Amino acid sequence: MKSPVENLYVHVPFCTHLCPYCDFPKERLAGNRMREFLRGLQAEWAWAKEEFSLAPKRVFFGGGTPTALSPSLLQELFEIAPWGQAEEWTVEANPDGFGATKASLLREAGVTRLSLGVQAFRPADLTWLGRRHNRATIASAVADARHAGIPQLNLDLIYGLPDQGPSEWQATLEEACALRPDHISAYVITPEAGTELIRRIEQGEWHPDPHIESVLFLLTQRILESHQFTAYEISNFAQPGKECRHHQAIWSGEDYLGLGPGAVSTVAGRRWRNTRDTTQYARSAEVGPHPTHEEEEICGPQERRAERILLGLRTSEGLAEETLQGQEACLSELVAKGWGRRWQGKFLLTPRGRLRADAVAAMLI
């Protein structure tokens, strides 16, 4: 019996430029490599149809920057599989290079949700992050998405940047809210191994400030809630009914299939990651039976339980207390500290507890 799959992630590894903080599999635009990618994805999709019972309800195109592809290549990408039959189809984009033509192409293909990588508005912040857009291109991209009729819009933001105190971050949040998005994702800047950001830290050019990050985190909750956004996960805020269903499915422990270079899959207790190299990905997918897997592992009951706790704590749904049997003393301690609360058979983190989500998870696993 084939394993059912309802959640798909498609990794498009191309960017017009490489940002200093990003550690996702990515490369600069190159015509021959993009053609290789499309061939490989087509071959991987053919394998997936034979291997699994595919009934995609939630599809997410990430990257890289999927919309960095030309309109003609985007059209080829969209024709590989019936992505548009999903209930929710999210595509990530950057403000620069996204215009009316691509917005219309996305909507006509069936895209229901655009995730726009804004990250910041202040020129100094954008420069430090290596971003090439500005306030005008952000506003234009939002207007083009709305005019094309894409139903939902998310804005990605990053905080914890140099010279960014509460007043600067509040101004960023207010400016984002003024664009009237349906969803906002606000992530703390996170140094990842192998990135330019790590080099800056090692050379003493900049250092994260955990205290300021905590202040900005709590400020984010307050400001966005005042604009009727609900914090349904530590870094994700939505207007009523506008939550990302793909994210919710993954956080709740549902299986998902990742397609493309570097994409991760978790299906029927197995987890694997495709090779990150685009050329090797394409060649191995075409030779078959599937792209080369760099990592493969079996996810047993203990591993899945640990993940459910780690991810569940991050959400507003929290964890069913029945999954935390034997942890009564720990739960009582967390409540006494003001880090958690118990409600209708569930354990949830308070805003102060969310600041320590990873530490709390380690106590409960």
Explain the overall architecture:
The protein is an alpha/beta fold and 365 residues long. Helices cover 41% and strands 24% of the residues. The protein folds into two domains: 3-251, Alpha-Beta Horseshoe (pyruvate-formate lyase- activating enzyme); 302-364, no CATH class. The chain is globular.
Strand content: 15-25%
Radius of gyration computed on alpha carbons: 21 Å
Q: How many helices in DSSP terms?
A: 14
- Which stretches of 5+ consecutive residues score pLDDT under 50? none
Strand order of the largest sheet: 9-10-8-7-6-5-4-1-11
Provide the domain count: 2
Structural class: alpha/beta
Helix content: 40-55%
User: Roughly what is the average pLDDT, rounded to an integer?
Assistant: 95
CATH domain class of the largest domain = Alpha Beta
Report how far apart the termini are. 33 Å
Which CATH architecture of the largest domain would you pick?
Answer: Alpha-Beta Horseshoe
How is the CATH topology of the largest domain named? pyruvate-formate lyase- activating enzyme
CATH homologous superfamily of the largest domain, by name?
Answer: tm_1862 like domain
Number of strands: 17
Largest sheet composition: 9 strands, mixed
Which overall shape is indicated by the principal axes computed on the Cα atoms? globular
